[in-house]
Design goal:
The protein has eleven helices and seven strands. The longest helix has 19 residues. The relative contact order is 0.15. It folds into two domains: 149 residues, Rossmann fold; 74 residues, no CATH class. The protein starts with a strand and ends in an 11-residue tail after the last strand. By secondary structure, it is α/β, with parallel strands linked by helices.
């Protein structure tokens, strides 16, 4: 069995990777999650969503919006987390995708996580990082990557992923408000037919939109594409795959 660490930026990423995380838990893996930045009012909802997926707890790393920096002090809590949980697999956002994403802080978050993983495997600031032994992370997967190289079949966990989404009221409302500024009602109606009924309730509208997004992505990486999956969740594994032999 493996130990998996999900390094989320804002919290919603835990659910965006919920299909793969729920499958890992069903297989007996030990799954941990951490969120770099989140508003206090959303933290209980993130914990509840993680719990629905089967994740026992979430570490909140307490970084503020617009204040992500790659400094030794900023790395310490992430390094402590990695050395304490000793993951075999880390999931984080795709640095390549982050370069083109104008959501605040994403570029710096990708760099901060990567630099923290790099020093977690060395004897860097041992006392300041909890006194845990160094832990090199052998395998990193990037979520929602620009160029995926692996797909996880999530047909059997898609329903629980959508159930976990339902409790993220704060982030769903935020998404709906943002989308209403970017798209007119007629455009949204082509995605959510009952938008007129939901338009004044950002939580319900955000849920309806994200449910459609998740299904569209799962189908795109599944039956609508050529991956061989039915409903797929896309990832990019960092580095080369080392194989004993070529297998089907």
């Amino acid at each position: 069995m493996a130990t998996v660490l999900m390094l989320a930026s804002f919290g919603l990423e835990i659910v965006e990777c919920g299909g793969a995380l729920a499958k890992a838990i069903k297989a007996g893996d030990d799954v941990h999650a951490a969120v770099l930045m989140s508003r206090p009012e959303s933290q209980s909802q993130i914990r509840e969503a993680a719990g629905i997926l089967g994740i026992g707890g979430v570490d909140f790393l307490g970084v503020k919006y617009g204040e992500v920096v790659v400094t030794p002090e900023a790395k310490e809590p992430i390094v402590e987390l990695v050395r304490r949980t000793k993951p075999d697999v880390v999931i984080m956002q795709d640095p390549e995708h982050a370069q083109h994403d104008l959501d605040p802080d994403r570029r710096m978050i990708a760099l901060l996580y990567a630099e923290s993983l790099a020093v977690a495997g060395r004897d860097w600031r041992m006392a300041e990082c909890g006194g845990h032994a160094p832990h090199p992370v052998p395998t990193i997967y990037y979520m929602t990557p620009s160029r995926p190289n692996c797909i996880v079949e999530i047909s059997d966990t898609f329903a629980i992923k959508q159930k976990a989404l339902e409790v993220l009221a704060f982030q769903l409302a935020f998404s709906a408000e943002s989308i209403k500024r970017r798209a007119d009602v007629d455009a949204i109606r082509s995605i959510v037919e009952n938008v007129d009924e939901l338009r004044d309730d950002n939580t319900r509208l955000g849920l309806a939109l994200h449910q459609q997004f998740d299904r569209a992505l799962a189908l795109y990486h599944g039956l609508a594409g050529h991956s061989g999956a039915v409903l797929g969740e896309a990832y990019r594994r960092e580095g080369a795959f080392v194989l004993e032999r070529l297998t089907p």
